[in-house]
């Protein structure tokens, strides 16, 4: 007995990977953005680590923005926004504590 054409095929991967195709570059950018966002946010809590938090936040914002530009699935976009938010918050707190070059260039 043949299956009707209206049956949906089961997608491989995660819950929101709706097209069932691999997306290695957007997934890599998503992971990098999340990692940099966590790094920027954690190091922003320490005043003397403002160089790490501001640079990690800036690079996280840039990778997240490019990831949003080329993202395909809802999962990628959702986690990129989380990483972008953490990167931006870490960046802004790092800038408030001394900035990208604070104490290095006089």
Automatic annotation (TrEMBL):
Residues 1-12 have a biased composition (Polar residues). The chain crosses the membrane at residues 28-46, 52-72, 79-105. Keywords: Membrane, Transmembrane, Transmembrane helix. Residues 1-21 are annotated as: Disordered. It comes from the Bacteria. The keyword Transmembrane helix applies. This is Integral membrane protein.
């Amino acid at each position: 007995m043949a299956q009707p054409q209206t049956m949906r095929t089961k997608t491989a991967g995660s819950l929101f990977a709706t097209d069932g195709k691999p997306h290695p570059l957007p997934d890599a950018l998503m992971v990098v953005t999340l990692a940099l966002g966590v790094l920027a946010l954690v190091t922003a809590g320490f005043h003397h680590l403002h160089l790490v938090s501001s640079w990690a936040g800036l690079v996280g914002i840039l990778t997240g923005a490019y990831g949003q530009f080329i993202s395909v699935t809802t999962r990628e976009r959702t986690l990129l926004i989380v990483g972008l938010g953490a990167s931006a918050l870490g960046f802004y707190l790092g800038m408030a504590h001394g900035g990208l070059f604070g104490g290095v260039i006089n």
